[in-house]
Design a protein that fits this description.
By secondary structure, this protein is α/β, with parallel strands linked by helices. 36% of the residues lie in helices and 23% in strands. β7 (182-186), α7 (194-211) and β8 (214-218) form a beta-alpha-beta unit.
Length: 269
Amino acid sequence: MPLASIVRLRGKWLSENPIHARTGWAFMAFIDINGVSKVYQTRREPVTALTPIDLHIEEGEFVSIVGPSGCGKSTLMLMVAGLLETSGGSISIGGKPVVAPQTDIGIVFQSPVLVDWRSVLGNVLLQVELRGMQSKQYEAEARKLLKSVGLEGFEDRHPFELSGGMQQRTSICRALVHNPPLLLMDEPFGALDALTREQIRVDIERLWMQTKKTVLFVTHSIAESIQLSDRVVVMGPRPGYIEKILTIDLPRPRLVSMRESSKYLQYQH
């Protein structure tokens, strides 16, 4: 069996048998989420958002999280980013514990969060400027990314001159310009129309196939999760828990026509 297949099977085995992730194989995933829970303290009473969760994500995997509103999908992603403290358990990325906001990652939110007075290129380069890097050294990469998502020729435009989809493409380029090993995406297509969502989904899959970055993708869309992911984590309602993890065995690139296949429909069901 090829090594890549062994690694994938082992990752799947760990996901379905989380207790063995710490006591079985001599194995460490790129993202290790071990017994992580979240409880919010309110004036009335504590509110449990997430029950203890175990999830292990391989380097280069595209993993989506789906589930009903309020099940803790975004909470889990924010804890992976180090932007929200855990109430219990631990998270590590590349073997390093997450104990503070992570700097070597890219994040894309539902809103593009662009700076109105900066150009498209300036918004992309803002990422490296805030990190104290020389923007000139990253300008070629920024232009390359913009071209890859159909924004060549719009580098000098400002956000108010762009459609919603173009703004979100700009934010995706901003998240990738410093070449992070991990990309976190929190419902990035949620505010877009159906046709724009589909085009950006194609862009994301193409970029992922080129770079093989590790991606954790939060979405409400079952179709998006199947068409983008290696695995789909299905969460149950609050307090959030992992209901099931599905391995998506479909060829890439995943075309719209694939939605008519019996295998796709089985995953959707």
